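Students often ask why we bother predicting the structure of a whole assembly rather than each chain alone. The short answer is interfaces. A chain on its own may look different once its partners are present, and contacts between molecules only exist in the joint model. In this exercise we take two input lines together and write out one structure for the complete complex. Read the inputs first and try to guess which parts will touch.
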Amino acid sequence: MREARYSDGMRAVLPLMPAVVAFGASFGVLARAAGVDSAAALVMSATTFAGSAQFAVVSVLGAGGTAAAAIGAAVLLNARYAPMALAASGAFRGHPVRRLLEAQLLVDESWALSSRGGGFDRKLLLGVGGLLYAGWNAGTAIGVLAGDSLTDPATLGLDAAFPALFLALVAPLVRTRTALVAALMGAGIALALTPLTPAGVPVIAATAACLVGLTRPTGAADPRRLPQEAPS
Amino acid sequence: MSAVWICVIVVGMATIAVKAGGPVLAAGRELPQGAARVVDLLAPALLAALVATQAFASDEALVLDERAAGLLAGGLAIVLRAPILVVVVVAAATAGGLRAIS
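Now the answer. The structure tokens for the assembled complex follow.
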């Protein structure tokens, strides 16, 4: 496999960009509708750069929740980046400040798309994350400017675009039975906890499903392992 | 300072710290084998949880609404090997269309 370039990452994420810009715009619109001022919405997209957490803050504040509740939901939603960033830490090199800045481009999509055989490709991650960052912030600016004149994102079905997007991202990852079991368990845990825990907790708790990786494959007895001796 | 700006600053700083923790403190180190196997499964578990919650959760309730129909249509597009943009548009159009006629 030839070495990846930044442009490979950008090309990989290009199909998502209309949805990312539209999602960023919907954040800008909803933030304004919830009484968040334009500057706060723009600063939040530039520093937090995580759609679900930003939407959590805006919706909690918009519904009259406290700052503590909004912060708790958002930080819990973003806690998943700790193990993800640790897993990808081998991809980052150089001065700590440079690693800190480059790590900010780590989001679900850049993490998933830059995973390469147990490791992570730095240029793919930065290519994907960089374009997403530009699109997310441009979208937020568009949404903030458009304000109330834009249609409700739910009317456009944008809220349904995101589960489908994540389904498209998970589909190529569940080629092994262990990965499929982890995915189904993750979804099951998240759904089971949704009525019982505050927003954000179900997704974090679902990461426990990855512990199925500790159950060792049963080696030769594993029916998935076909004999390799036969010449083909 | 307003509640909004407190949220923006605290969430922003916390997110920056969470993302930078591993790469700044552990750069270049390899994960042990068992940990690597577990971490390999983080993406499928987490993405599937996001699929489930973004499609079926509304605040703290489980609901079956137009998003489920959108997800189903998007899933069909994935099975038919459609590009991601098509998957996303099909899902959004299905949910938006159903809302328009209901």
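Check your guess against this: Helices of chain B lie at 3-25, 33-40, 42-56, 66-79, 84-101.
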